[in-house]
Amino acid sequence: MRLLLNLFKLRIGFAIALAAVAGIAVMPAAERQGLQAWQLVVLTLAVLLSSAAAGAFNQYAERDLDARMARTRERPFVTGALVHGPQWLWVIGAMTLASVLAAAFATNWVAAFHVFMGAFTYGVVYTVWLKRRSWTNIVVGGLAGSFAVMAGAAAVSPEMSPAAIWLAIALFLWTPPHFWSLAIVCRKDYAAAGVPMLPVVVGEARCARIILGSAALLVAATLMPALHGMGWIYLVSAVAGGAYFLATCVALVRRPGPAAARASFRASLVQLSLVLLGAIADSALRG
């Protein structure tokens, strides 16, 4: 089980699937009533499956990088626990195709397109095209989470509500400060592997200031759905999570380094969880 959790990055996958559910939750109640329970389940599983496929492809394509980094050198393709071969590309392709077809069958082709684009963005755009070439890798990679929100919203209606659009923007803005915090913790690893993550390119102190600015934009975006129909539960969750994340980012600017960056990284996870769960809880209360 641990092998599968590692290969398919299921912890990330569950967060991505939760983002899809939140995308459904922020759509107007009158439109959500047309979505049946089985459609919600199938779409959520489709997003999880596509995310798992993208995670496996990431590890398949980055075996050489993973072998040079302490954080990743125990991954199964590096250790030999799984044989690195072309058969895995067939498995990954089949998983992606199954996720897209399942989303289309359960909902519509617009939602299915977003499911595909989430996997494509992480697996190809981020992993293959950008990660080894540019510090913007994780900025563009943040679209993977946005596509999950859009898949959920499109399952309700191809025309997304303003709240859904803002939540998708928030997911896009969340990824850079989240991952740059981790990149400060692992800066020496990334430098040794030749990966141009932002703290490697500009240094820890400047990266910390950029993280704070990015987090401020993120928190502002998470508050916007409250202006477009979301209730007090969502607002309280977004404010609490945002305040906590910003506080750790301020601490990181004051004392740039791995310890403060690790705290900021963990706070970003708390903040995302509060926003997504707050959206779902708020939707459940409003019916």
* Total individual domains: 2
Radius of gyration, CA atoms, in whole angstroms = 19 Å
Q: Based on CA inertia axes, which overall geometry fits?
A: flat
Gap between N and C termini: 37 Å
Largest sheet: none
User: How many β-strand runs?
Assistant: 0
What percent of residues are in strands?
under 5%
Oligomer: single chain
Q: List unreliable stretches of 5+ residues.
A: none
Q: What would CATH call the architecture of the largest domain?
A: Orthogonal Bundle
List keywords for this structure.
287 residues, mainly alpha, Four Helix Bundle (Hemerythrin (Met), subunit A), flat
Task: Describe it.
The chain is mostly helical. It has two domains: 1-159, UbiA prenyltransferase (Tetracycline Repressor, domain 2), CATH 1.10.357.140; 161-287, Four Helix Bundle (Hemerythrin (Met), subunit A) (Up-down Bundle). It contains 16 helices and no strands. The longest helix is centred in the C-terminal third of the chain and has 29 residues, at 258-286. The mean pLDDT is 95.
Strand-helix topology:
Blueprint: H1 2-7, H2 10-25, H3 29-32, H4 37-61, H5 63-67, H6 76-79, H7 87-106, H8 109-130, H9 137-141, H10 143-156, H11 162-185, H12 187-193, H13 198-202, H14 204-223, H15 232-254, H16 258-286
Helix pairs in contact: 2-4, 2-10, 2-11, 2-16, 4-7, 4-8, 4-10, 7-8, 8-10, 10-11, 11-14, 11-16, 14-15, 15-16
